[in-house]
Amino acid sequence: MNAETISRPSGIELKFRGFASVYRRREEQGLCARRSQFAMNLQSYLCSSLLAAYALCFSLAQAETLGGRVVKIADGDTVTILDESNRQHKVRLVGIDAPERKQPFGTVSRQHLADLVFGKTVVVKWQKRDRYQRILGKVLVDGQDVNLEQIKAGLAWHYKQYGKAQQLADRSRYGEA
């Protein structure tokens, strides 16, 4: 039998007698298996990434809106809204914290919030409730972000505890204000 020489990419030459074709076949199968494994890993990664992106978009799209008239101001960060079905909803302004009524500037903060929203029709964008079942939301009057206005007036501060209930853009705006 004649010896057959196979050159490897590493520069090593292998000499075989009669089994060269078997070796080549097995080598090709191994290469195909590695390529196939890489393709499967890549496909799995891409599918996972797309699924994560879809879940993120879906969760952001799940924000609910509530419309109604503000009928009560509890303090500088909590209001009560009466919807068109005459149901009351307690809303905690997400992303801010204001002094309580009996704390310094508590009444000033409450009065400023009342000046902004009391008796007016508002829209609340929200995604979840807190442990007291209050809606955690961003209150808008004629497109104006009331939560942010409380911070800008110096009568509330950015409150990070409810940060996950807040959109990323709002979080950064409130942090900068």
TrEMBL record:
It holds the Pfam family SNase. It comes from the Bacteria. The keyword Nuclease applies. One of its GO terms (molecular function) is endonuclease activity. Residues 64-177 form the TNase-like domain. Coiled coil: none annotated. Keywords: Endonuclease, Hydrolase, Nuclease. SMART domains: SNc. PANTHER family: BLR1266 PROTEIN, EBNA2 BINDING PROTEIN P100. This is Endonuclease YncB, thermonuclease family. It comes from Nitrosospira multiformis.
